[in-house]
Amino acid sequence: MNRKFFLNLLSASLVLCIFIFPQVKAISAEAAECAVVKTAQGSVSGTLNPKVPVCSYKGIPYAAPPVGALRWAMPEAPKPWKGVLAADHFRDVCMQKTFSLFGNGEKTSYEGSEDCLYLNIWRPAGSSGGGLPVMVFIHGGSLMSGAGSWELYDGTQIALRGNVILVTINYRLGPFGLLAHPALRDREGYEGNYSLYDQIAALKWVKKNIAQFGGDPANVTLFGESAGGMSVAAHLLSPLSRGLFDKAIIESGPQLFMGAPLKTNEDAAMSIAKKLRCAEAKTAAACLRRAKAEEVMAASNEAMTPRGGTVEIYDINTVMDDRIVFTNPYRLFAEGKFNKEIKIIIGSNRDEADLTAMSRPLKDRNEFDSTLTEDAGWAKKGLNLDLDIDGIKARYPFESYKTPRRAYSAIFTDMIYACPSVIHVWQLAANGATVYQYQFEKSPDDRGMLNDMGVFHAAELPFVFGNFSFMGLNFSSSKNLKLSKKVISLWTSFARDGIPAAEEVPEWPPYTAGNPAYLRIDSNPSVGLDMRKNACAYFDAYYKKAYSE
């Protein structure tokens, strides 16, 4: 071995000792830190992401399995366990129809389990000292589908880039989360809304245990998309949710369409009970709780099938009562009867209805007219909106759009998503709340199918979580990743101190009557004024007529 080769080998060995071995030691230390955390019910062990310093804890029970006597009952605390629970894998999704981006054809199949009340936590390794902001996400899916374990909601990037604790949850869905049958009334006389009670149970678990994972229980941001956003709005109203979170983000969750009259739900529940041979009033509760989960799903299939195109109508829904959803969310927010201490971000996507419009018969002007008329009928039946079709056509001239689909999408994007969000901002700001408004304007892809859909409902989620793979689709790009970093910074800085900010993003002022600002979120974010003001004033006249009493 010559002298020069020996010196080079020695130098390389020193580099390994200085840089590689300490890194291995650090990673080993981080992995050890992920190992065991004590909760109120018992200890859990997590895992270290092999690529980045983030610990994950998957499948932690926050409530007892809602089976047997606990089916259609308020959630109860999970039983304590001995030893260490290996929280290294997701648990079952809650019972639901099998989900597919492209539909399931004529076949109806089910997935999941009733034993599904689990949550998942991601935190930066090295954060066990405490004090990190906490973000709790409620998934969407019309309260019928979805799970906190979907790959789209993986919290690694938010935890890593935002230096926060990220929590996702499962909650009961479909008939198991929504059935309102008189035989199921609790001691206080209430029924239904089990989905929302599960969410509250999860928030209570977080409040009690998150400090052990390095989080600050006094700094919790609740955020959700679609039905998850509507759920967040419900928790702004409910006294049962007071003190469980400090800030809120509502993504495409039109609060004024929350809930349905109790009689509507009860009629559907009675029909479902009859199909299950549980019609006898005295034995209905016990009979319903004995039925197999798949039988309950099958009997509820018609009630869980949306009707009305963009105006989705379900026979079972959250119940309008005076304990959690309340009789009239639109009026209550307008009257300031909500938790004003919560700072809020609210917004929607530029082309919310584009995805749904693709499934509607909109080949030509005749189909456009007939589909618009049909969906207006559903708006009257399900949302109490008595629409003037001719007036709407005059405001949205068919000839102004490239295709019938674009014309249809423009109308229902405003009516169902954008304007309910805008008006919610108006109501909150008028009553003294600090609220930040946005419109998301970036399609998940710049070409192909996803680009053709526009900035559709849920299009912001890959950017919020920094995940660009979902059910076989991969739409990662340098442009998407760059914008995602900005969105994650906006959301997590808001979670940290109530002020959304990010590099290369202009200052985002809160909405006020004197400065009706909103943030346009796209590759080059900018601040605009009076988002869709005229269109939303037009539709607000319908909302006031429908919901002012």
Task: Explain the overall architecture.
With 549 residues, the chain is an alpha/beta fold. It is 38% helix and 15% strand. The protein has helices at 3-33, 156-162, 174-178, 194-209, 227-237, 262-275, 284-290, 293-299, 329-334, 354-357, 365-383, 389-395, 404-430, 448-452, 461-465, 478-497, 533-547, and strands spanning 37-38, 43-45, 47-48, 54-61, 84-86, 96-97, 110-111, 118-124, 132-138, 165-169, 215-225, 247-251, 343-349, 435-440, 469-470, 473-474, 517-521, 526-529. Strands 3-4-8-10-9-11-12-13-14-17-18 form an eleven-stranded mixed β-sheet, with helices on both faces. Strand 9 (132-138), helix 2 (156-162) and strand 10 form a beta-alpha-beta unit. It starts with a helix and ends with a helix.
Summarize the structure.
Helices cover 38% and strands 15% of the residues.
Strand order of the largest sheet: 3-4-8-10-9-11-12-13-14-17-18
* CATH fold assignment: Rossmann fold
Q: What value does the average pLDDT take?
A: 91
The multimeric state of the shown protein is single chain
Count of the domains: 1
Helix content: 25-40%
Distance between the termini: 93 Å
Low-confidence stretches: 1-28
CATH architectural name? 3-Layer(aba) Sandwich
Proportion in β-strands? 15-25%
Q: What's the CATH C level?
A: Alpha Beta
Largest sheet: 11 strands, mixed
Structure annotation, total helices:
17
CATH superfamily label: Alpha/Beta hydrolase fold, catalytic domain
Number of strands: 18
Rg from Cα = 25 Å
- What is the 3D form? globular
Structural class by secondary-structure content: alpha/beta
